[in-house]
# Entry
Amino acid sequence: MFLKAIGVIPARYGSTRFPGKPLAQIMGKPMIQHVYENVKKSKELDDVVVATDHEAIFQTVEAFGGKAVMTKKDHETGSDRIAEVTNHVEGDFFVNIQGDEPLIHHELIDTLVRTARESDDAVITAKTAIKTEADIANPNVVKVVAGYDNKALYFSRSAIPYNRANKETTYYKHLGIYAYPKAVLNEFVKLPQSPLEELEMLEQLRLLENGYTIKVIETTYDAVGVDTPEDIQKVERILGGTQHV
# Structure
């Protein structure tokens, strides 16, 4: 049976560090347009929509020819926003794509979707090898460890695994992209916050604590997110070819 894949880009207007971030201009186009156009290059997604809580973002997406869905303003997470989209858009699984990553690679999305079609009861996410000691120690860079079967064992802001044996090892950064089976997504958002989730402030731990399977694929892509206005310059340097990812 063919499973229909919907790419959803949550785009919230309010941001403590960068209000109106989805509309920020990057080389003459709003950031949300860069994200949308890169996601649309995917050969595996059946449709792409922006899920927003703000009329200006909705109108901007419609103006450049994209699809948008208005959602409630009080959602706590992107997953909650995507769950609302499942009430308006038909699909078997939904791919949560960060709205502040204008350099997202469509090849990663395609690999994620193909894996999801082969594992229709699991949540699929991604990891990439961490290249610097600073990122290993940085609590804002979320780490993940997985088993031989590529199922996630744990996610943490700490450096995991702890290298007691002092052996050469690779640490992996978790990338915030997920493919959710529709049923799992709608069950997930109804669950109360779990103890580990509250400690680490990582919502994916709620899935693990409740016995859900998260499969992790590896990629060489490393997310370049826009968290502050200063990050716009970094993205423009990469797009202009003066800085490499």
About this structure: DSSP finds nine helices and eleven strands in the chain. The mean pLDDT is 94. The first strand starts at residue 5 and ends at 11.
